Each structure stands twice: as structure tokens, then as C-alpha cells.
Amino acid sequence: MYDVAIIGAGITGCSIAYELGKYQVNAVVIEKENDVSVGTTKANSAIIHGGYDPKPGTKMAKYNIKGNQYTKELCEKLDVPFKQIGALVVAFSEEEKKTIEELKERGKINGVPDMEIWDQEKLRKEEPNVSEKALAALYSPNVGIVSPWELAIALAEVSVQNGVEYKLNTEVTGIEKTEEGYQIETNQGTVEAKYICNAAGVFADKVNEMVNEKTFEITPNKGEYYLLDKSQGNLVNHVIFQCPNENGKGVLVAPTVHGNLIVGPDSQPTSGNDVSTTRQGLDFVRNTALKSVPGINFRESIRNFAGVRARTKEHDFQIYEDKKNKGFINIGGMESPGLSSATAVALDIVKMLGESGLELEAKKEIVDERKIARFRGLSHEDRAKLVAENPAYGKIICRCETVTEGEIINAIHRPIPAVSIDAVKRRCNAGMGRCQGGFCGPRVQEIIARELNIPLEDVPQDRKGTDIITGETKDGGAR
Prior knowledge:
The chain is α+β, with helices and mostly antiparallel strands. The protein has helices at about 10-20, 60-75, 95-110, 120-125, 150-160, 205-210, 280-290, 340-355, 380-390, 405-410, 420-430, 440-450, and strands spanning about 1-5, 25-30, 45-50, 80-85, 85-90, 115-120, 135-140, 145, 165, 170-175, 180-185, 190-200, 220-230, 240, 250-255, 260-265, 270, 300-310, 320, 330, 395-400, 405.
């Protein structure tokens, strides 16, 4: 029997696993996909928010502020791409100028530091490509951009090194309360645990209802995005928001940590599995974004994608130990600022587990830092040294992102192995460039098959079942 079972390996589940790995606790993460960070964690705006937007007194406000600082610290320790570039909430009318003043006051209450209101002159000086119709902007310097999937993977990998177990391709189908804790039924058999942390994202309400009546309901909400080539990456210097409305923080324009430009999202009701993109949604994103930054060249788009928010009617995180089922802790409704808050939420979840009776004895020694060799960012001297140590680092596989065979092999053999083309992409950026894997994809597939000693046709694009090869052409192509 495990001490703790964490259901879900998104940013929240991986953050909890990372914190539990510091203690003498037998913990397991149960994830239905073949990798961590496959859901909303890999499909969002990649922003570490400042904390001025949540209503004072909410869990969102509390954890956003704490998570903003803690996430920066973790990114530095775990070698995760992060840049603190600040954000601007732009006002286009006198009414919206009042809104950004209100946001500033809300931010003060929440504890956001060093906010300023920029007039039109200051805004144009700092952001010359922002629309001339913009009248003013709220500046929040503590906002950052991050690689969310790399953060989740880093937290997961370190937790594995500290003894946390991961059961991938394992879907929870039922939960039964027992005298000692819980019996979790999955498609891979039964898992027993004294405590459960429900971090199942857009399906957290369904997991909760396996042991309880409905106490909260998630209404999935989809947001669609454009990812533009690096040629557009320097168009703005900060995260550019429009004034928030009833649909959320609105369409943003922002650089990414990898040098691209991200634009989106829209907001539309959907189902938990719907990550399709639509003409209507993308047209809305495009037209809305051009109001903020008229010079965006959408011909430079290299990828469209969508993510699903775990929204609730309370518009706040659902974080609590169930009153009727001791040891069952819900972490639901983790919509924005969920990414910004997850690391701080995890600290409190560990405290809640301790208060519920879990013995928390700190380990004397833990792995608490990580370093990744990224060939593209190395000096010529360091590249030469790395190639001398391992010649595989001298062979470029992804030309767009300058990713070597050595980096791909490393990704496949890390604590949580990459078993798909997109899993490799999430770990070392192969296929993330302008051609989106058109050149390197087949070679990455070959390397995965070779390193894992599996047939080429068993290497998927991403999730299990996303087959690339379905048969030989001479046999008709289908199997």
C-alpha cells in the first residue's frame, strides 16, 4: 500500500510529487497518458501571472502571489527556461483606463509589487509596436514567461530521483473507501493508498464523484492559439494583455522563452477532450490581437493549438480535504492562474496531508537541482568539449532548433523516458521550429525505436494511439 496516490501528472500533480519526494513517504502518481504534462499543462499561455487579476481573498489570489516567486526559484534550480519580462494591461478607452486603475488597486491588496500606470507616451516608448490607439497601460514587472511542460517534466524527474513512482498509461476507473484508506481501480489493476490527491485537471470533478456526491463541477472551456515563427518573437518586449472581461484575461500577445510569439486564447465552452482548432475561434483570436499589436504577421504562423481550462462556476480553486472522506484531497478548478499557482499549492497540500495524519519525516539527502545540456545555447568551447565526451552531440538532427542526437538520446533515457516524438519535443525542443518536425520527425522516430528497442511503427506522435505508421504502402497502407 502506498502512503499517497496522486491522480494526474499535469503541473499540479507533478508539483505535489516533487514536494512529497522530500519526505520519507511512499508516493505514486497515476496518469492515464503515456507521459506527464500532456493535458492543459502543454497547451496554455505559458505565463507566470503577477497576481493583480484574482479577486482579493480568493485561493487564486493567495496562491498566485506565492507561486509567482516560488516558480522562479524552482526554474533556476531545475534549469527550466524562464524570463521575467513583465506585463502590460492595455487600455483603449477612458472606461478601460478606470479598469486598469482598479486592477492596480486590486494588485496592491493582493501584494503585487512595483506596479505602475504608464501613459501613452511611456507605453509607446517601451512598446513601439503596440497600437497607437492605446491610451495607457498597467505595468506589472513581476510577470514571467516559462516553458510549462519543461517545468512539469523537471518536477516529475526530480521526484522520481527522490523515490516517487509513476504509473503511466494508467486510467482511474473507480475508487472505493477502505478501512486503511482507498482502493483505486485502474485499467492496469488495483492501487491501494492511504491518501489521495485528486489533481485530475478537467476531469477532477469526475474523480471526486467516484467517492463522493457532486461537490463541484468543472465546465471545460477551450482556448485557441497561434504560435508564430521566431521572426515575430521580438515584436513586443512584454506580455501584452487587453483589459479582462467576463470571459477571462482575454487575448494576449507575448514572446515565448524559446523566441517565438504566442497569440491567444479565445474562450468557448467545450468538452474535456476537445483540443480541436476552428476557423471561427482562430479568426477571433487574430482580429482581437491585431487591436493590440497591428503589425503581427500571421503568415508567419507555424502552429495552431488549443487547450482546455478547468473552469468552475465559483471561479476559484477547489482545494480542500473532503469532509466525509478523510485523506481524500481535491485540487480542482485549476484554471488560470493555475500554472502560476501550482508550485505554491503543492506546499500547502503537503501541510494538509500532515494535518490529516500523514507522517512527514524529511529525508536527509534529496536531489534538488538539475542541469540539462542544451547544445544550441553552449559556447563553441563547451560544444567541442561535449562532443569530445559524447560524439552523438556532434550530430544535428533538428536543424531549426539546433538539437543534437545526444540531446534526443538523453531525453529518451531520462527518469521519465520520452516514448513519443512529441515527448522528445517537450524535453529538448526537437521539432519545435519553423518546419514543425517536417525534417527531423522521421529521424527522431528512428532514434526512439532504436533506443527503446521497439518496432518503428510502435512509436507514436504523442498520446498512445496517435500512430504515424499504419502499414507498408505495398500492402495497402492500413492494418
